[in-house]
Amino acid sequence: MDAQVPVAVEGLDAVRAVADAILYEGYLLYPYRRSSGKNRVRWQFGVLLPPEWARAHGLTDEGVAGSAESWWQRTECLVQAPPDAVVELRVRFLQVQRRSPERLRPDGSYWPVDRIDSGGRLELGFDEAVPREFGIRARVADLLAGGHREALRAPGGERTEPITDGTGRQVGRVMRRRWPVEAAVTVSMEELPTAHPLHRLRVRVENTGATTPADATRDEALRSSLIAAHTLLAVSDGAFLSLLDPPEWAGEAARGCANVHTFPVLAGEVMLSSPILLYDHPKVAPESPGDLHDATEIDEILSLRTRTLTDAEKREARATDPRAAEILDRVDAMPPEVMARLHGTIRDRDWNPAGDPGVSPETDAVTVRGVPIAKGGRVRLRPRTQGTDPQDRFLEGRTALVEAVLRDVEGAVHLAVTLEDDPAADLNQWYGRFRYFAPDEVEPLGDAP
User: Fold this and answer.
1) 56-87 core/surface letters (b: 16 or more CB in 10 A; e: else)
2) Domain span at residue 373?
3) What is the DSSP string of 402-414?
4) Which of 261, 284, 307 is the last residue of a domain?
5) pLDDT of residue 415
């Protein structure tokens, strides 16, 4: 490895917001209290446990889902790059940290307890986590020649924080303790026989810890585990290809990539290999004011429900974890205009039909089997047998009147129709309640019913 080799890493920093959302997804769930059943079993994604413990508990799944626990994960992706290009990786995960209240005894010693309530401050025992990130660089030529393996170690440690009562007298302390986490990363590349120069990049991340016995509890094993493990990859003077939408000439190579407990997607110019399955170019919604650890698409309901917690519940949540306290503070102080933004938005993409003056559902037409169909046309319904609403299958062969020709934000065409023999057809037309079918799900009919 050459620490002096320059490599463009702006793309890695640009995707950090999404990577951080992955890092803390499921970290703590609403209602953010230790007593909640959802928060008694921790850590859901990308858990790499000590190998001896994982094998003893039958964790041998090799599927792509990062919710299946194991002691290793593998990323395989496609990259175009010359031999002198540099690949940069960032391996990221959480390291478990145990927070334990300890009461001060008269003789000056400390006694571990489950909770300390000093009046103005409540402290509960709970598992927190510390983010870890390791960088690795290698030339493409070196990876093709034999690859590289590097050991990673997140050290253990202890630190304390005093707990005082309302008069400033110390009544105890909070002990935070971490156990060492040991891992290894193996990086290699191979040249592929494709129409254009192409390489398969392989990254294997594994837990190498050997201090956790096979009969330990899961909580004990988690202390030496990589939590929410994921990888960011960048390449200088090169480019990654999408595995979800590869060019035709690279389709077979993309299908040959075997990803285990993680999956790589394009994120700008870099690859994000995540234990949570994503689409290419994922982004955190700009309307989201902060992480709720429960998926950003439900910010509004989580914020509203958090506001309904009682004062006692909020006090317990604040004592559960500092991140829970941050959520409560942010939600309590959220101004109305921020809450309004969470209620919903129309995301502009390459084309927004609502803002396109050339789009007119009242007059637009689509050609089906050589016949133009527009509002007022008649069709016979032929719903697809797969990939459709099962209720639509009951409408097989029924005739319908086309009410509008619509296009969605992806550019797909949909026919809004009402059934000709529906007694409530007039009422449905009045308040715009239609059924929707794709052009290939209808047969054109004559104008007269």
Assistant:
1) eeeeeeeebebebbbbbbbbbbbbbbeeebbb
2) 355-444
3) EEEEEE-TT--EE
4) 284
5) 93
